[in-house]
Amino acid sequence: MYDRYGPDVLAQPAPPAPSQQIPQVEAEPGMVVECADSGFCGAVVGLEKTAEGRAVLLEDRHGLRRWFPLGAGAFLVEGRPATLIAPAPTRNPGPKRSASGSVYVDGLRAQVARASRIWVEGIHDAELIEQVWGHDLRVEAVVVEPLHGADDLLRALREFGPGPQRRVGVLLDHLVPGSKESRLAAEARTTFEPCVEVLGHPFVDIWQAVKPSAVGIERWPTIPVGTPWKEGVITALGWKFDVREAWDHILGSVRGFQDLEPDLLGPVEQLIDFVTAGG
């Protein structure tokens, strides 16, 4: 029945709604939380603003990473419901960092590229290097170029004509003892030393240099010899992608050096140092 006199002014106020009682907790890196809906439990790795609002990236004890929206009461902190929020900015956040972890240089102007070069095997390799080290390379005026395969390495080096001011740093896939790549690397070093350095990583393809957890998979599948590796990976993972779409998905998951394997990080840093030391 309608009460024309309104509510009793002496009555006790109604208790706050349950959502108002849930505390807000700053999502500090490393803090372990649980998604209330899915039960996924992991440490806070990062935060990002998306089209649907802010989201938090969690990493579980197996290294698997997943994004979750910052909904009200969407998480459990020490077993209790909580609303995660972005940490308040600190007064001294320190220097801005690039994706490689180096100090970011603001106001960088275009400059003439060095004569020295870094060569990688293919376009995917070049795109990944740009994704993480692009800022560093522009600071140093270094150009990365794809070889489109290691078989033409010696011919390409002869045509390029390395010298003290025209160094070449080469990054090869699958550089392991006894491989074709290891023989090519040894011959290139012997023929053009000290103006050429050839380094590499042990992975069959640059895709494997991206941590599986960054891509949202448990591990990179083992592909039988004789099966095209990229196509085999796509099939084994059940992806509905072609090779280009699959690579776009992988590359889009890389936000910085933390998403790459150490076996790639070291060689790339060494090659940048090598080609910049030559002037």
Any descriptors?
single chain; 279 residues; alpha/beta; SH3 type barrels; Rossmann fold; seven-stranded mixed sheet; four-stranded parallel sheet; 11 strands; globular
Give a short overview.
The chain is of the alpha/beta class and 279 residues long.
Instruction: Provide the structure class.
Output: alpha/beta
Query: How many β-strand runs?
Result: 11
> Which architecture of one domain per CATH?
3-Layer(aba) Sandwich
CATH class wording of one domain:
Alpha Beta
Share of residues in strands: 15-25%
Q: Major beta sheet, specifics?
A: 7 strands, mixed
Task: Note the run of SSEs as H and E.
Answer: HEEEEEEEEHEHEHEHHHH
Mean pLDDT: 85
Distance from first to last alpha carbon = 88 Å
The proportion of residues forming helix, as a percent range, comes to 25-40%
Parts with pLDDT < 50 across at least 5 consecutive residues: none
- Radius of gyration using CA atoms only: 26 Å
Characterization of this structure:
With 279 residues, the protein is of the alpha/beta class. Among the domains are: 18-85, Roll (SH3 type barrels), CATH 2.30.30; 117-209 and 261-276, 3-Layer(aba) Sandwich (Rossmann fold), CATH 3.40.50. Helix content is 29%, strand content 20%. The chain contains eight helices and eleven strands. It has helices at 18-21, 123-140, 153-160, 180-192, 212-215, 229-237, 243-252, 262-276; strands spanning 24-26, 32-35, 41-50, 53-59, 65-69, 75-77, 80-85, 117-120, 143-146, 168-172, 196-200. The strands form two sheets. It has a seven-stranded mixed beta sheet with strand order 1-7-6-2-3-4-5. A four-stranded parallel beta sheet has the order 9-8-10-11, with helices on both faces. A hairpin with a 2-residue loop joins strand 3 (41-50) and strand 4 (53-59). The longest helix has 18 residues, at 123-140. The model has no long low-confidence stretch (mean pLDDT 85).
